[in-house]
Amino acid sequence: MDEDINVSDKQEKKSLKEKLLSREVVTYLIAGLMTTVVNMIAKFIFKNLIGFDENVTTALSWCVAVTFAYLVNNYWVFLKGNEGAGKETAKIFKFVLARIGTYFIEAGSIYFLITLKHVDGILGIIPSLLDKINASPSADNIKFWLVQLPVQFVVVVLNYVFSKLFIFSDKKDK
Q: Which domain holds residue 95?
């Protein structure tokens, strides 16, 4: 009996380092990085090669990234696989719904910071940096990518929380 308690205590007392280095967290971070790369490549294609504006670019690249992310998360990160038509439909619905939420955070950030030019106010904290960026013929692209990196970080963290707690959780559906 004491052995059972000790095993349970050890499981509950996992260090933060052990939790952060779990297979699931590590594979999620890799999948998040891969999804971000897919998103950025799609953005590069849509914005720089095709010439869409930042808002259309954000929407189209989101669709590409969400499709990729669902497959990677379902089959590799959370090891759920195909759980039958009903459960799969529910997972896809919840996944897309959560990603729509983080899409609005991303798109809203792009609109607010890039389209409405509020990034200039943020970059204005370091006037010499803003002057150098504005002097560049690629100023709009530089600002777009400077905003993308922190926005993508926030999106990846939120997507993990939604995936872990609501989409791929082991809780029984009611």
A: 23-167
Residue 1 lies in a domain: no
CB 73 within 8 A of CB 95: yes
pLDDT tens for 13-52 read: 778 777 777 888 899 989 988 998 999 999 999 999 999 9
Q: Are 136 and 113 in contact (CB under 8 A)?
A: no
Please say whether the dihedral angle defined by the alpha carbons of residues 30, 34, 39 and 43, taken in this order, is positive or negative.
positive
The helix (H) or strand (E) run that includes residue 150 is helix 139-162
């590409």: which residue's tokens? Answer: 64
Q: Does 46 map to a domain?
A: yes
Has residue 79 been placed in a domain? yes
Number of domains observed in the structure of the chain:
1
DSSP class of residue 173 equals: P
Instruction: Answer whether 31's CB lies under 8 Å from 73's CB.
Output: yes
Question: Is residue 9 situated within a structural domain?
Answer: no
Q: How large is the angle between the packed helices 23-43 and 54-72, nearest 10 degrees?
A: 150
